[in-house]
Amino acid sequence: MTRVLITGANRGIGLALARQYAADSAEVIACCRNPSTARALRELVASTGGKVRTLPLDVADDASIASLKRAIGDLPLDVLINNAGINGTPKAQSAERIDVEGWMTTMRINALAPILIAQALRDNLLRGSDKKLVAISSDYASTGTNYGSSRDRYAYRASKAALNNGMRGLARDWADDGILVGILYPGWVRTDMGGERAAASPNSISAEHSALCLTRRIAELTPATSGAFLDYNGETLDW
Length: 239
Ligand SMILES: NC(=O)c1ccc[n+]([C@@H]2O[C@H](COP(=O)([O-])OP(=O)(O)OC[C@H]3O[C@@H](n4cnc5c(N)ncnc54)[C@H](OP(=O)(O)O)[C@@H]3O)[C@@H](O)[C@H]2O)c1
Fold this sequence. Notes:
It is a single chain. By secondary structure, the protein is α/β, with parallel strands linked by helices. Helices cover 41% and strands 14% of the residues. The chain contains 8 helices and 7 strands, in the order βαβαβαβααβαβααβ. A 7-stranded parallel β-sheet has the order 3-2-1-4-5-6-7, sandwiched between helices. The radius of gyration is 17 Å and the shape is globular. The model has no long low-confidence stretch (mean pLDDT 96). InterPro entries: Fungal_SecMetab_SDRs (IPR051468), NAD(P)-bd_dom_sf (IPR036291), SDR_fam (IPR002347). It holds the Pfam family adh_short. It comes from Bradyrhizobium brasilense.
């Protein structure tokens, strides 16, 4: 049975991924900051008869990452999905105004944490059969795509570009160990992050559809596509 660990699994795309993998009969380790208050996730745990379990993880906290590693010990992981992310704090950071602390927090959560978590759980991936490391990125990372809109997203754009660069480095440096790296744009998704505009737009997609497509892209990941930047439909995105 495939064993998948997902960060930020209490809502949005992370929760939808947990539901999709459980429906596909995978074993899911669903991580979030506070499992005791994650109502939808607790309902999923209760309804899936032991296939889904929760563990606490604040991706911005070194001690929390170390505690996660202690909790899972030597357990093999087939798929590790770095999904947790923030829009920026504050979301609006522009040519006119950069919030230094907020920028650093955004980089910490979106770009650095996925690498630290991958390092902490590398041995678990090596013990797994699939050895797939996945980062949920954004088209806002791309300087070749979607660069004309949203001029107030400097921190978010930079953090996702840095995420992509770090993940591409791991794809190169861990290839000899058989670790495959997926860098995936989930689409414009109707979640809290997608916000009111996504909720009102016919061009957005549901978290369920995004998760279904993402699980298919992860299943298709091979050495040939490891380190590529793909969208939820499998199309290649510009860096
Ligand atoms: N929605 C879109 O249109 C879209 C587009 C492109 C990329 N993405 C990417 O997709 C991923 C998921 O986004 P989403 O739309 O599902 O967003 P969301 O609904 O806002 O959910 C974000 C998730 O990340 C978690 N998170 C944030 N900071 C965390 C931390 N320090 N430690 C642990 N968990 C933390 C949140 O947990 P809490 O509940 O504890 O805050 C929540 O579970 C993100 O990486 C995002 O950048 C989304």
